[in-house]
Each structure stands twice: as structure tokens, then as C-alpha cells.
Amino acid sequence: MLTREDIFKHVEANYGTLPDYPFSKFPNYAVLRHISDGKWYGLVMNVLPEKLGLDGNDGVDILNLKCPPELNDILRNGKDILPAYHMNKEHWITLVLERADPKGEIYKLIEQSFYLTKES
Length: 120
Known about the structure:
Blueprint: H1 4-15, E1 30-33, E2 40-47, E3 60-66, H2 69-75, E4 81-83, E5 92-96, H3 106-117
Antiparallel strand pairs: 1-2, 2-3, 3-5, 4-5
């Protein structure tokens, strides 16, 4: 299982970024931002599964990432990669971290989001 701490270690090591917690109402929501301009490339949240159309009563950690629209339908599988929660569903996806395969493509998707949102 991939955890939010795994994500935070990865982005610090690879992009030099640390999570930012800008929401006083949701102190556990962490934004991943570019150092240069503060633009978001990821958002880690803990939400109830019902908000995602999933079963369960306990909150789950999710990661929202930017993704090219042409890949969204291919990646979304209804299990661990879903339409974006609380973001533009055409350009963003949601990964359910506890269901994500740690040996899968998660870090490649983070890299893709990082470069899609990077200023030119």
C-alpha cells in the first residue's frame, strides 16, 4: 500500500517540494506545489469512500493529479484511479492510495502531473 508519507518523500527527493497545508478547515489536506510559482501539481486528501462512489465507512487517502484528457478514460478503472474528486474531471484524476499498486505507475503519474503543470 502506498501512503501519503511515501508520496511526500518521493516529491521531496525528486522535485524538492514539501507538502503545504493551506486549508484551516481541512488541516490534513496537503497541496503539492511547484517551488517556482506555487502552482499545484498534486493534492492529497482524506475523504469518506462514499464521496468517491466507493463502499466503506473509514476515510481514505487520495491523490489528485493532472493528466492529459486523452489518457483519463484509459487510466480510470473504478477501483484505484477515478474521476477527480473536487477538481476538473477532464484534466485531473484521483488515485485511492490504499488501493494503489506501489509497484505500479504512480510515481510516473506524479512526474507527468509535475511537468504538465510546470511553467514554460
